[in-house]
Fold this protein.
Amino acid sequence: MTSAAALKTFTLSNGIKIPSIAAGFGTKWASRHRPEQKEDELDPGVIQGVKDAIAAGIYHIDGAEVYGTEGEIGVAISESGVKREDLYITTKIMKNVTDPIAALKTSLTKLKTDYVDLYLIHAPFFFDNLEEVWKGLETLHKEGKAKSIGVSNFKVEHLERILKVAEIKPVINQIEFHPYLQNQSPGIVEFSQKHGVLIEAYSPLGPIKEKGPLDPILEDLSKKYSKTPAQIIIRWTLQRNVLPVTASAKPDRLKEANEVFDFTLTEEEVSKITEVGNSHEKRFFWTDGKYF
Ligand SMILES: NC(=O)C1=CN([C@@H]2O[C@H](COP(=O)(O)OP(=O)(O)OC[C@H]3O[C@@H](n4cnc5c(N)ncnc54)[C@H](O)[C@@H]3O)[C@@H](O)[C@H]2O)C=CC1
Ligand SMILES: O=CCc1c[nH]c2ccccc12
């Protein structure tokens, strides 16, 4: 069995290592956007949140053009005291898909950096020229502005379209993934993994957000390993070879999320969570462009 600490990074299909826990600055962070908030007004709470994640040892930060948090991420990483090359910064394109070159230029200015580690197509639902957008991402990769490129919320049919034209294959598909939603769309995890596309899990903590059949199992495992249910789920995610993107405004919870490299669930425990999770489907986010 591989050691618990071995999962601290995953290796992408292009050979680049990626820190295996990410802190996300979308969703609730983005809800700070009140109608009266000006585009260039930065939220000190989000800046502090990114700094807290970095201080907790989570060097992998997940943002997106549409979250409106790139400016805060830029300030936080430049003030973090951690060298840029030691951080792993993701952003995503969704609005400005007609011009990916210009879209990333704007994102990089906000992020105060010359490159992102990972640039993702945020979702395939709102435009049809996926192949063209992918070609734009390939150009940005060749120019060194995106060290790796990938996708998010892609179904098998969307990945197939990209793989047909790709000179550079996507390294990641970021989807909703947790024990209660192990295939955001039919067959997507198996297909992605077969093609060397790492699955990144957003909303990995789904099962602790409401009651469900996993509750007693998580409770037992929490006692056995002296870990919280959140840590058990994060560990299960990693042992499924999936990279969790978690979020919290509470520094202690970020620290907790990163303290999962000193224990290993047995294969039977991983299978049990998988099996019981599969008996209860719950989706927290969108599919086909519709929010829930
Ligand atoms: N590509 C996409 O379409 C999407 C990407 N994302 C990305 O994923 C990130 C994370 O998504 P979330 O759904 O927020 O992830 P999550 O499943 O980690 O949920 C976070 C929430 O869980 C709770 N929580 C966190 N730690 C906890 C703990 N230790 N104990 C108990 N409760 C805890 C808090 O309420 C927190 O707001 C986003 O910020 C964003 O970056 C999210 C949704 C869609
Ligand atoms: O990525 C998560 C879902 C999402 C898509 N667009 C927005 C805008 C603001 C917050 C979350 C999201």
